[in-house]
Amino acid sequence: MNPKKDLLGIEGLSSKEIINYLDTGEKFLEVLDRPIPIIPALRGKTILTLFFEPSTRTQISFSIAAKRLSADVVSFSTSTSSVKKGETLLDTAKNIEAMKVDGVVVRHSASGAPKILADNLNAFVINAGDGTHEHPTQALLDIMTMRQHFGYIKNLNVLIIGDILHSRVARSNIFGLKALGANVAVCAPPTLIPIDIDKLGVEVFYNLDEVIGDFDVVMALRIQLERQESGLFPSVREYRNLYGLTIERVKKMKPKSIVMHPGPTNRGLEIDPEVADGPKSVILKQVKNGVAMRMGILFIHAGGKIE
Amino acid sequence: MQGVRLNSILIKNGRIIDAKSRFDRIADILIEGNKIQKIERNLKVDAAKVIDATGMIISPGFIDLHCHLRDPGRPDEETIESGSKAAVAGGFTTICCMPNTEPVIDNEGIVNYIKKEAEKVNLCRVFPIGTITKKREGKEISEFGELVKAGVKGFSDDGNTVSDAKVLRYAMEYSKIFDIPIFEHPIDENLSKGGVMNESEVSTRLGLPGSPAIAEEIIVARDLMLSKFTGAKLHLCHISTRGSVELIRKAKKEGIDVTCETCPHYFFFNDTVLETYNTNYKVNPPIRTEIDRRAIIEGLRDGTIDCISTDHAPHTQAEKELELVSAPFGMTGLETALSMIIMQLINIEKFSWLEVIDKLTLKPAQVLKERLGVIKEGAIADIVIINPNIKWILNPENIKSKSKNTPFLNKELIGRAEYVLVNGEIKYQTGV
């Protein structure tokens, strides 16, 4: 399969393309369990991780993935966006181009920023999260984790709880899961649900207790405290009471169902520690799968070879 | 046969269209001095200059009720000179410049500065709009008397709505002394806060903060009620939603003294263009859904929408090169409006030329209460000669505006102004 140059989002990918990512990611899981977990697939390739927004986990996950494939990794992160330094993204792109890197992994607080880079770079661009738009690598590792657990995605019932309005993880998961034929629903206060989301084929619920028992996968999203400050819900306490994954609620879940979270978790807020660490949680599996999936993604886009 | 008339221009064989008289016929026009002397078929006159307008459309010069010239304050974006050049290149002979300059147009001194600059530039008529409130702060009404005396043709806090309904009520009541319209920018600031595009399925998919249609409609409804209550003349700027069109249609039936305008980008594009993340599509109000776009076209067709303005909003490349969330609102419009109108309204929607010329000339002249926007014997010779079929590329080097923030850069457009006359003088000629 001839991949597109960039991975900017899940929207618009065919089921075939998504499955190719899942299959490739799964192949690399085995490498991670080897005594010396390194293969020379991307030897001589240079990958730049460019993080304009702080994210230790995702950046580390990408760095490890690239190193496991023997690529050279250069990491750059800044908590202040380049705009503040008076450098536009276009200018950044031109500078990267001049330095001749093969691929760029970018995280940016502005939706669409990776597209600006991709449109102006010969190097491939992997979106590691842009604003409230997409986080395609997270969705792919999430879907890989679901497929690992259930063996199928079609007709799987997935519930995403929390700040859908500002969540790039939710968007990418919705696009990917719908493309593969899963049933996706969201549950949140109406103020945290973006307009017309039902047009994406998503069911919308406001009352978690009524529906939590109907799903195979329950995914909680991180709730940002500044959302409360901007008046979208009355208090953190009330949020936990209505939408938190508490032990009592998780007890109502289906027998074989799982709990997911893209991390980092606000333990005791959107998810109780006992749930995050409990038997239904696959949160650490998601983290491990993240490295394998990102190896697969880099491998596909860098045109790697297995010797 | 008379001798050569000095200072005369003969435009031959053009299709002359005048909205007021509903004249639509091929004829010759003789211009002497600043006036239209004669309109007749096969005029036998030896004029100093003869323009062959065969196949061309001859319209009164366009009147733009809404543009931003950024002068004083932002000469890097636009000046009265560059903005005037852009205006005449687009067929506009009269433009109204909005007062959100630095400093704002809230006193006689700034009005005089603009008038003097425009005189110096000597291309098109430039009518300043004064602020509704001092410093455009939305708190106390400006000195309307001084501003009207200095020459402003309307009042607007454009860029912001007058949030405080009481302040707007006073402004409307007070404006009745001068019988000059209030140009309201109808967008609720709280509802639209943070929005970079229309709030819709598209903004949901793109993960971009949305500004909802109701942010506009709530203020349109409020302003219509205030106009009814005060009896003041209200002109609603850049109408973009179906709900606004419906509210205004109803208000007009009730007899409320309201006029309104829309801009070419609201009937040319729908919000899926934001999928490109091209900041040149970031405008305020935002480009709306296809349903809204259709309603704007219907509003133009049934006369609910009176005028087409440009909301020409120049910004530098550096400003627009930022990400969508950081880039400023606005696209340029003076040099592309005519093509957008031809491509969408004439060629696709099959509007008559009379209908669109009405919205570009007579209707805005009526809002301003100026005796402009007509072609008849004795009228002031503000004229645009249009080639309606020519295909051309909007080359960055040929753009007259100082700013190039248009989504049409390097793209093909249809139709353009070939000659523009203001006060009987040729102020623009394509390629010259």
UniProtKB/TrEMBL annotation, chain A:
Which residues belong to any copy of the Aspartate/ornithine carbamoyltransferase Asp/Orn-binding domain?
154-299
Gene Ontology CC: cytosol
User: What SUPFAM superfamilies does this protein map onto?
Assistant: Aspartate/ornithine carbamoyltransferase
One family from Pfam that matches here is OTCace
Task: Extract the GO molecular function terms from the UniProt entry.
Answer: amino acid binding; aspartate carbamoyltransferase activity
Q: Which residues are listed for carbamoyl phosphate binding in this entry?
A: R57, T58, R107, H135, Q138, G263, P264
> Under which pathway is this protein filed?
Pyrimidine metabolism; UMP biosynthesis via de novo pathway; (S)-dihydroorotate from bicarbonate: step 2/3
Q: Which reaction does it catalyse?
A: carbamoyl phosphate + L-aspartate = N-carbamoyl-L-aspartate + phosphate + H(+)
Entries under PROSITE patterns matching the protein: CARBAMOYLTRANSFERASE (PS00097)
User: Which part of the chain is the Aspartate/ornithine carbamoyltransferase carbamoyl-P binding domain?
Assistant: 5-148
Alphabetic keyword roster: Pyrimidine biosynthesis, Transferase
State the top-level EC class.
transferase
* Gene3D superfamilies membership: Aspartate/ornithine carbamoyltransferase
Q: What is its EC number?
A: 2.1.3.2
Q: From what superkingdom does this record's organism come?
A: Bacteria
Q: Tell me, what is an example of a GO biological process annotation in this record?
A: 'de novo' UMP biosynthetic process
Which residues are listed for L-aspartate binding in this entry? Answer: K85, R168, R222
Q: Does the keyword Transferase apply?
A: yes
Q: List, alphabetically, the InterPro entries matched.
A: Asp/Orn_carbamoyltranf_P-bd, Asp/Orn_carbamoylTrfase, Asp/Orn_carbamoylTrfase_sf, Asp_carbamoyltransf, Asp_carbamoyltransf_Asp/Orn-bd
Enumerate the PANTHER family for this protein: ASPARTATE CARBAMOYLTRANSFERASE, ORNITHINE CARBAMOYLTRANSFERASE, MITOCHONDRIAL
Q: What does this protein do?
A: Catalyzes the condensation of carbamoyl phosphate and aspartate to form carbamoyl aspartate and inorganic phosphate, the committed step in the de novo pyrimidine nucleotide biosynthesis pathway.
Q: How does this chain assemble?
A: Heterododecamer (2C3:3R2) of six catalytic PyrB chains organized as two trimers (C3), and six regulatory PyrI chains organized as three dimers (R2).
Family, according to the entry, reads as follows: Belongs to the aspartate/ornithine carbamoyltransferase superfamily. ATCase family.
Under what name is this protein listed? Aspartate carbamoyltransferase
Automatic annotation (TrEMBL), chain B:
Q: Could you say which residues bind Zn(2+) 2 here? A: D158, H185, H238
**Ranges of residues in domain Dihydroorotase catalytic:** 56-242
| InterPro entries to which the protein is assigned, alphabetical | DHOase, DHOase/Allantoinase_Hydrolase, DHOase_cat, Dihydroorotase_CS, Metal-dep_hydrolase_composite, Metal_Hydrolase
Q: Which reaction does it catalyse?
A: (S)-dihydroorotate + H2O = N-carbamoyl-L-aspartate + H(+)
GO CC annotations on file: cytoplasm
An example Pfam family from this entry, by short name, is: DHOase
Keywords, alphabetical: Hydrolase, Metal-binding, Pyrimidine biosynthesis, Zinc
- Which pathway, per its entry? Pyrimidine metabolism; UMP biosynthesis via de novo pathway; (S)-dihydroorotate from bicarbonate: step 3/3
Keyword Magnesium recorded: no
Binding-site residues for Zn(2+) 1, renumbered to this chain: H66, H68, D158, D311
The cofactor remark states: Binds 2 Zn(2+) ions per subunit.
Give one GO term, molecular function aspect: zinc ion binding
Provide the GO biological process annotations. 'de novo' UMP biosynthetic process; purine nucleobase catabolic process
Any idea which residues are catalytic in this one? D311
User: Which EC number(s) does the record attach to this protein?
Assistant: 3.5.2.3
- Swiss-Prot/TrEMBL cofactor(s): Zn(2+)
Residues annotated to bind substrate: H68, L69, R70, N100, N284, H315, F329, G330
The free-text function statement in the UniProt record for this protein reads: Catalyzes the reversible cyclization of carbamoyl aspartate to dihydroorotate.
HAMAP family assigned? PyrC_classI_B
The UniProt entry's sequence similarity note says: Belongs to the metallo-dependent hydrolases superfamily. DHOase family. Class I DHOase subfamily.
Protein name, per record: Dihydroorotase
**From which organism does this entry originate?**
candidate division WOR-3 bacterium
Q: Taxonomic classification, please?
A: Bacteria, Bacteria division WOR-3
